[in-house]
């Protein structure tokens, strides 16, 4: 991870400016721009560089803390070295955010270090209650925007949060199972990612305990995603979508 990015050649003779592994004006350290990879959706090259962990930090919004008025959420996605890989921003209407709360439909745009939108997440208005099995949560992942690479679908269960990760043809690829109680004090909450037959654990999505003050007085969350390094890059993107759905 520690190498200094070198200028890369592009068709037509255009040379991209190098991105150094140094803090920017706001103190953010960006992950170096990876070279393009054949048959890889543009922008997902970041997920192929021996990455098996993504950390998602929701940014604190001062207006939301002071007034309780729900604003569009924004997130930093970092690798294990603390380098920013992506930036995610929610785009929903004011009335929708404050009336529907956590169940609101949303569109989240995920951009890379060059400001290009590389992943788009769409969640329609659905129910998350086990009492409504015909209208459970679903999220579509596009990479790049306009090209669907997978889905995250909630599965009905009487007491456990369960989800299925699917590819673009809606073929089941992975399963996600969470704990019966998803709110815990002073400890992380883990959602296990397993094979389709649920016999083998392949990863984990964890809600990190952020401290008493932040947990009690804000709704900002910190998540961690772990997956196999050799997992298909599209499925890594869908796992990021699964984290936002959770």
From TrEMBL:
<dbReference type="GO" id="GO:0005886">
    <property type="term" value="C:plasma membrane"/>
</dbReference>
<keyword id="KW-0597">Phosphoprotein</keyword>
<dbReference type="InterPro" id="IPR005552">
    <property type="entry name" value="Scramblase"/>
</dbReference>
<dbReference type="Pfam" id="PF03803">
    <property type="entry name" value="Scramblase"/>
</dbReference>
<keyword id="KW-0564">Palmitate</keyword>
<keyword id="KW-0449">Lipoprotein</keyword>
<protein>
    <recommendedName>
        <fullName>Phospholipid scramblase</fullName>
    </recommendedName>
</protein>
<dbReference type="GO" id="GO:0017128">
    <property type="term" value="F:phospholipid scramblase activity"/>
</dbReference>
<keyword id="KW-0472">Membrane</keyword>
<keyword id="KW-1133">Transmembrane helix</keyword>
<comment type="function">
    <text>May mediate accelerated ATP-independent bidirectional transbilayer migration of phospholipids upon binding calcium ions that results in a loss of phospholipid asymmetry in the plasma membrane.</text>
</comment>
<keyword id="KW-0106">Calcium</keyword>
<comment type="similarity">
    <text>Belongs to the phospholipid scramblase family.</text>
</comment>
<keyword id="KW-0812">Transmembrane</keyword>
């Amino acid at each position: 991870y520690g190498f200094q990015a070198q200028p890369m050649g592009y068709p037509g003779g255009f040379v991209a400016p190098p991105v150094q592994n140094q803090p920017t004006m706001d103190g953010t350290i960006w992950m170096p721009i990876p070279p393009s990879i054949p048959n890889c959706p543009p922008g997902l090259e970041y997920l192929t560089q021996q990455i098996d962990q993504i950390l998602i930090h929701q940014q604190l919004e001062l207006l939301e803390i002071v007034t309780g008025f729900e604003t569009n959420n924004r997130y930093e996605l970092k690798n294990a070295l603390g380098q920013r890989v992506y930036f995610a921003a929610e785009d929903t209407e004011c009335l929708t955010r404050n009336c529907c709360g956590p169940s609101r439909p949303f569109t989240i745009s995920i951009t890379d270090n060059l400001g290009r939108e590389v992943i788009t997440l769409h969640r329609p208005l659905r129910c998350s209650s086990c009492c409504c099995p015909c209208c459970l949560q679903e999220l579509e992942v596009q990479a790049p925007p306009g090209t669907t690479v997978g889905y995250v679908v909630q599965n009905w269960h009487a007491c456990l949060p369960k989800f299925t990760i699917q590819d673009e043809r809606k073929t089941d690829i992975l399963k996600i199972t969470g704990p019966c109680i998803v709110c815990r004090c002073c400890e992380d909450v883990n959602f296990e990612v397993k094979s389709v037959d649920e016999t083998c654990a392949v990863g984990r999505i964890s809600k990190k305990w952020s401290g008493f003050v932040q947990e009690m007085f804000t709704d900002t969350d910190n998540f961690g995603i772990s997956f196999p390094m050799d997992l298909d890059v599209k499925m890594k993107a869908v796992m990021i979508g699964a984290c936002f759905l959770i």
